Amino acid sequence: MAIQEFRLPDIGEGIAEGEIVAWKVQEGQSVKEEDEFVEVMTDKATVTITAPFDAVVKELKAAEGDIVPVESVIAVFDVGAAAPASNAASSDSTPAPEPAPVPVPAAAATAPAPAPAPAAAPAAFEQASPGKVLAAPATRRRARELGIDLHGVNGTGPSGRVTNEDVANFAAQGGGLAVAAPPAPAPAHTPAPAIAIPPAPTGATETRTPFRGLRRKIADAMSRSKNTAAHFTYVDDINVTKLVDLRKQAKEMYAPTGVNVTFLPFIMKAIVAAMRQYPEMNSALDETTNEHVIKHYYNFGIATDTDQGLIVPVVKNVESKSIVQLARDIQDLAERTRNGQVSVDELQGGTFTITNAGNIGGLFATPVINMPEVAICGVHAIKKTPVINDEGEVVPGRVMYLSVSIDHRIVDGATGARWMNVIKECLEEPSKLLFEV
């Protein structure tokens, strides 16, 4: 009998934890290498992890719905067993070793004092921010709570990343809070108690499902954004009469190729034009280093409504693509996102988000910022309405509203308004988009 622990793998850079959505196996079950093993939800995507070898599942150490840190033990395998093993089967002439505990308490008792941090971070991170310690946001938050300087913690994760366990070990050895800190200020508000929903009245019915998976991830992200970013929303109406005519021509021209040219590529190109004049709108706040990061590349997340909930695939390098290329990318990403075929890489790296409810209806909305981005643009329905032309005549026209929610900590209201004016000019006179470089 050979006992092997299985740790939640580091699915992608910046992923600190995952939610166990569904186990594909049961304790005592035999599995083959590459059999589906567990479905895990991260902040970026839902992935199915396969079994790493032929074995019997000895123990599942997390329940469906549990949030577990990366690198923590989630299952134990009996690699030497040839068939499903009962609980009694583990007692033979040679006692099997117990699964090693998660090393937070064990390492705290035996590990030597942590070595100083390396002089230089790995090159890929050094280029962006010299001297920055590689650690996930949740790890940084925990270190701040414990008064620990991450520069003094020896990282044992991939590429020297400091993990939650590293922080816990360091704290257990006396690290952190070495200097008496002033009392923490009282919280601005007391968290509201959990709300319990009473059972349905006699004779009435209701449906209850576990609040987990993508729906809970969306709830967590929206709550964090509203509780952190200082939202303000700016709305303007756009006379898109000329754009409607141009888009109709493009749609008819490329329909034989299978490409559906929508209004969204034009809007994306107009946003790039506005961001080149007001780059603060394509930025983020790194709260771990207190750095305002302006992005000189344009990767736009497109909020996509799916049967599982809202997912945001990212169209990369918008500035270097034509209207037709963008239309093709949007169509492909949306289809694969709804079919569950989008990759983790295609769900990260965004610098700005667009949410489009125009095909559903409504006048305008105040979307919630997709942090750590500083703004999100809402695209709304195009409506037939009277407009005044250049000659002062009232004529039939097409008008739409664009709304943008902006993080007021980073971007001033005047900047947001001027940014919207550039978009308005480009969409009302779409020929201007032809001269964008």
Please tell me about this protein's structure:
It contains nine helices and 17 strands. With 437 residues, it is an alpha+beta fold. The strands form four sheets. Strands 9, 12, 13, 14, 15, 16 and 17 form a seven-stranded mixed beta sheet that branches. Helix 1 (103-110) packs across helix 4 (164-172), helix 7 (264-277) crosses helix 8 and helix 7 crosses helix 9 (413-428). The chain is globular and about 85 Å long.
Question: Secondary structure elements and their pairing?
Answer:
Layout: E1 3-7, E2 17-23, E3 30-31, E4 36-41, E5 46-50, E6 55-60, E7 67-69, E8 73-78, H1 103-110, H2 123-126, H3 137-146, H4 164-172, H5 214-228, E9 231-239, H6 241-254, H7 264-277, E10 283-286, E11 291-294, E12 300-306, E13 309-311, E14 314-315, H8 323-338, E15 352-356, E16 375-388, E17 394-407, H9 413-428
Parallel strand pairs: 12-15, 15-16
Antiparallel strand pairs: 1-8, 2-4, 2-7, 3-6, 4-5, 6-8, 9-17, 10-11, 12-13, 12-14, 16-17
